């Protein structure tokens, strides 16, 4: 408190009116003023904002600025229950500071105890601690200018950020204790956070695990994605049918992200291009960066996930049309920008849907590569030599979605930097690597030639140049390896009959006049293999299938290009943070938690396999997790499960025919029909089983949605059968995401991984279940 005199005594603890606080104006700090005694926050039932306001009131009074601190008779004009507020530097004080200064509600609404407000305050407090490391990491990268990996992915299935940040910073216990003092449980506060709706399946979860590991291993890396406002969709059930609604994760902003208003790049679509490559685009947007910190485990290394949000170029807003009442026309660019990042994987049954997906992929690639080049130039200190780009940059394409990064890097090097095609190709082919995630032919993206020409005419020119170069260098390569696929227009039957009736000379002339093949498709996976320095599968078996089947023709040309990189999961999120009781048990037996950074240490648990006490403790941990899941299923689905006796049999994956949820539910039907034919003695001998299936069926995937319907219909019949009772229960768990997985996986006793043989590239969920 500025100007306070020394030596004045504080009032006795227990007084808490503003007048009493004001009498303490000689205190050495606001913290001392605020510490005049009061009951603990949880005993008063105060909201965080009330607690924080108590500290503010104390500080104001202590500086002599409270003009109405008492009436003429000496009684307080008003009193305020001011609980003790610790210094901002402490965890508790930091949370209280953000309860007041990181406001997300009006003061009136914030006055009520609110887990979401507590989540915002706690998250902002943690983010403060991360920020210093985050800035230091970027400063270190800029100074040392290392070779850096840039991970481009359409999906990042992050899960809740607060749990992960607290765990990686090893502050979970401290924040749990501080929140308890403030009247909140960490579990309730964490539950107030919605998952970032940036992904759907294993592709996105792998990307997120990679970022966590890159940060923890202190490697220079960065992730690039799109900031989807509504995610894929929020799944719910209406009767037995799946329904879809927008995800609402951004409705109340995102405390973890930092908007970078100074990081924007132009994005263009459509228009015309001349023979020299001059592109006059028809649509113009800007991509703006939003950064999320990814803290490593037991390290200061904190990397970034940079997400792009489309916005219309301000100078293209049609103000005259708007003022003339043509509002929709004037706002078209705003609506088009909103659509670009509205939804992950928009429905592509229509040409418009396909065009939107193509635009999304290009926006991710263009903004990211412009940013990569800007970083390269900045770190080179004004002495950038683009020929050195492969020494400083490697871009990992997570599946074929970011393939357009290849022609976009070529375009930027040629059109913006003035390099020749050959020079640009030499650089590009050394900077790009491709991860293949599928052996399904339909999942190897192919775009209509006409659509690419319409949306990205300049890029199609470059793709045709790459394809022509490949054909020239490998003239004997099969047509199926070309990037551009051709088709021959069909000749009408009448024309064929007429041609057959002519003599040999006429027939030969007719053959010459037959329609020439026309370009039909652009094969994105082929472009990735041709341009990529390396191509990897994601499991040993999958990588062999890639070499022997999917890309065998390419493997014959470039055998050294193909590698295996087995997918993995992070032990922190998938054991330590989601299963604390098991983690505690493992730590006790192994003597430390060093296994969280070295999973091979888990092999030492073998020596306790026959230890009866260890087995009992393991079963107790499992039962604790089963009870928590059973409670969740009852609260959300109204289905009662008995965790004490039922074996939890679970399959959670996105709904797809090759993942065979249909086979699973047919097995349930078979078991149920068997039970109905059993005698009472036979039924009594059956081990009770609770079958749970979860996963999203894509909105336009009719057969997958029918499988969801069947699962729920079977559940209604089985769960209502009193004769079967607890011997068999069936529950569908809607809106499967990372947070739900963290509840399901620790409680599982049998996990179903029954995808059609050879079709599952890796499937990392089996690792998560096995670890638990």
Give structural notes.
It is a single chain. The protein has 772 residues and is an alpha/beta fold. The protein is built from 33 helices and 20 strands. Strands 5-8-9-2-1-10-11-15-16 form a nine-stranded mixed beta sheet, with helices on both faces. Helix 4 (48-62) packs across helix 5 and helix 8 (161-169) crosses helix 26 (571-577). The longest helix has 30 residues, at 115-144. It is globular and about 85 Å long. The two termini are 53 Å apart. 42% of the residues are buried. Residues 1-46 and 53-83 have low confidence and may be disordered.
Give a short summary of the structure.
The protein is of the alpha/beta class and 772 residues long. The protein has 33 helices and 20 strands.
Key structural traits:
single chain, 772 residues, alpha/beta, nine-stranded mixed sheet, four-stranded parallel sheet, 20 strands, 14% strand
Which helices and strands occur, and which strands form pairs?
Layout (H helix, E strand, L loop, with lengths): L17 H5 L7 H5 L6 H4 L3 H15 L28 H11 L5 H4 L4 H30 L3 E5 L8 H9 L2 H10 L4 H6 L10 H15 L4 E6 L7 E5 L2 E5 L12 E12 L2 E2 L5 E2 L2 E13 L6 E11 L6 H5 L3 H4 L1 H9 L10 H29 L9 H4 E6 L6 H12 L4 H11 E4 L10 E3 H7 L1 H17 L10 E4 L5 H9 L2 H9 L5 E6 H8 L2 E4 L2 H11 L1 H6 L4 E3 L6 H7 L2 H11 L21 H26 L9 E6 L8 H16 L3 H5 L4 E6 L7 H18 L8 E6 L4 H7 L5 E2 L13 H7 L1
Parallel strand pairs: 1-2, 1-10, 2-9, 10-11, 11-15, 15-16, 17-18, 17-20, 18-19
Antiparallel strand pairs: 3-4, 5-8, 6-7, 8-9, 12-14, 13-14
Helix pairs in contact: 4-5, 5-7, 7-8, 8-26, 15-17, 17-18, 17-20, 19-20, 29-31
